Amino acid sequence: MCGQAPPARCPAGSHGGAPAGHRRGAGSSGPPGASTDPAQHNGPAAVSVYFRPQETGASVDGLPLLQASLRGRTLSGVKLPLPAGCTGVVLEQKGGGDAGEGDRWAASAAFSHMHHWNHDAAPLKGDGLRRCFEWAELAAGVHAPVNPAAVAAAAAAAPRQQAAAG
To answer: What percent of the chain has pLDDT over 90?
Structure first.
């Protein structure tokens, strides 16, 4: 490595022009990002230096559309709120306990929204991540307590609705 501090670029030839602190795999050739070798880096990354989402002024399904570029590809995204009653957590491994206990995890941060990105196309309601969010509402309805009076009223109304439709 060249020893320069991030986010400086290393001199040509030192390791392919990758950011300081980043070492490309042996045998790599071509520009950074073109290599099939995995990056050998374990540490913080200056993400905000390279990844800068901007609002486009457009909206998708009522959410402001964001646009960014990553490794030369355009990304389109939206900021999605988590379903009502849900909180996201970032888990951190805290090491194993006694034998057979398995690993221990602890929440190190919480969040109430996440960003959904697609390459070259805006994220839509039919995308997998957005459809997963619908399951939280469905699960809440399925597991909600049942009111016997409401069930009886719905059962009594069903024959009247069928007769009116026929």
So the answer is: 28
